[in-house]
Design a protein that fits this description.
This protein is 51% helix and 10% strand. The longest helix has 28 residues. The chain is elongated, with a radius of gyration of 23 Å. It has 2 domains: 154 residues, no CATH class; 126 residues, no CATH class. It has 295 residues and is α+β, with helices and mostly antiparallel strands. Strands 4-3-1-2-5 form a 5-stranded antiparallel beta sheet.
């Protein structure tokens, strides 16, 4: 009978635990996509499998609906609990303790709902599982495509790694026109956010909204922008909309977020020099009955 080398197995899990706790110190990893990218870097996957982190990100919502992938995730989860503090898992741990009794549809719904209130350790844990499962599927697809070019296991049929188009997100801010002209002029002139303007932008923002480009194009805010006439007689209640294009969604711009996280998100915005567009001066009616929520 073959024996199992438990000492080696435990050493690997200890290494995972060290990386896991180090990543948990960085608040950026509360974003699931960012956490997946970091695990790919930690495991040096991009060296052998270029763009694999983007493929995992593009397909993760499909994968977590698949029963087989749920079973693989559960096994990996239980294995890693050997060295990971169970108490830090929070809702994630409770979900998996009863996961074998729920359907893949229930699993997907719970993951989506839970993602709104996940601790950073739970996000990193989910990201690790998705990265591991993603690598397995990537290798299966690669092997299967060598035999059958038309096949693609557990993957988005519209997704092609060689022509990956990253989804854009639009962050829209409402700013009072009066008292913020210097900031608005800077944004209008430069067409991007300078580090010197980040804090000013945070302080000037009254309301905000973030969504992907497709949803933005069909939003009430976009409709108001397209149909609202710039004011000719100014008022102290006039507003400007500031549109910022982002490469990814950032939960810190979502509703009901801790103000410290919100502040940090604004400060970090300038790091990627995002494109900025400022609307003309508009009447306060432009933001009535729209998707905006308070900063």
């Amino acid at each position: 009978m073959n024996s199992i080398d438990y000492s080696t197995n435990f050493t690997i899990l200890e290494k995972f635990d060290r990386i896991f706790n180090r990543l948990a110190q960085d608040r950026r990893h509360i974003n699931l996509d960012q956490a997946i990218i970091c695990w790919s870097e930690e495991l040096a996957l991009e060296k052998d499998f270029p763009n694999i982190s983007q493929e995992i990100i593009a397909n993760k919502d499909i994968w977590i609906q698949h029963h087989t992938i749920v079973k693989i995730a559960l096994k990996l989860y239980l294995k890693l609990l050997v060295v990971t503090d169970r108490k830090t898992m929070g809702v994630f741990g409770n979900l998996f303790n009863r996961a074998e009794n729920i359907s893949s549809k229930d699993f997907y719904h719970n993951i989506q709902e839970m993602n709104k209130e996940m601790t950073i350790k739970s996000v990193i844990f989910v990201a690790f599982i998705l990265t591991g499962v993603g690598l397995l599927i990537y290798l299966l697809n690669k092997k299967d495509k060598n035999n059958n070019p038309q096949s693609n296991i557990y993957s988005n049929t519209d997704y092609k790694p060689t022509t990956l188009i990253k989804e854009k997100y639009i962050l829209v801010l409402r700013i009072n026109s009066d008292g913020n002209q210097e900031l608005l002029d800077s944004l209008t002139y430069n067409h991007y956010l300078r580090p010197a303007d980040s804090l000013k932008l945070y302080r000037a923002t009254q309301d905000l909204w973030i969504e992907n480009k497709n949803k933005f194009d069909s939003s009430k805010i976009k409709d108001k922008l397209d149909n609202q006439t710039p004011v000719t007689i100014t008022s102290e209640y006039d507003v400007h909309f500031v549109m910022i294009e982002l490469d990814k969604n950032d939960f810190r711009f979502h509703p009901n977020v801790n103000q410290m996280d919100r502040h940090d998100a604004f400060i970090e915005l300038a790091d990627s020099s995002p494109q900025v567009k400022v609307s003309p001066r508009l009447s306060y009616k432009a933001y009535e009955n729209t998707e905006f929520y308070s900063r």
